[in-house]
Specification:
Radius of gyration: 19 Å
Shape: globular
Order of helices and strands: HHHHHH
Distance between the termini: 61 Å
Number of helices: 6
Helix content: 40-55%
Largest sheet: none
Number of strands: 0
Length: 149
């Protein structure tokens, strides 16, 4: 007796009601890069032949991004495909060998905050490299050592 697959060809991932963590991570990286570039979901969608609603679903991890679409996104967002997998923990939950600092449990990811994105955009609008470097050094000095609590 054959089991019903409800429109699916068998195999694949079962629908558990929540997105796969890898799809969520990749979608978060798409959103990060898009917002750092100051690009709207609509503009990104137009560039890769999608609606902004489809882009939203990718960014939430609700829809899985296929290889060819990931390649298109890497070209439009001007990053290597590997960018979308940077800082992704291993399946057992252990961090990658060289991760960026992650927030403490319960804290929002600072890279997902609008304030962080606006700060980065403003920083890169500084046209004089010497001024930009001095602002960078000032910020590091005010923040204190990286390993301080």
């Amino acid at each position: 007796m054959q089991t019903e697959t409800r429109g699916r060809r068998g195999g694949g991932r079962p629908k558990l009601g929540k997105p796969n963590p890898i799809d969520v991570h990749v979608g978060t990286r798409v959103r990060l890069r898009r917002t750092l570039l100051g690009m709207s979901q609509e503009k990104l969608g137009e560039a890769i032949g999608l609606t902004f609603q489809q882009v939203q679903k990718y960014e939430r991890g609700a829809n899985r991004i296929g290889a060819s679409r990931l390649f298109d996104l890497s070209r439009v967002l001007d990053v290597p495909v590997s960018f979308f997998f940077d800082d992704m923990p291993y399946p057992d939950g252990t961090p990658n060998p060289a991760p960026t600092p992650m927030p403490e449990a319960g804290e929002p990811d600072p890279m997902a905050k609008r304030e962080t994105l606006e700060l980065v955009r403003a920083y890169y609008r500084i046209t004089d490299p010497a001024v930009r470097k001095r602002i960078f050094e000032l910020t590091k000095a005010v923040a204190g050592p990286a390993d301080a609590p």
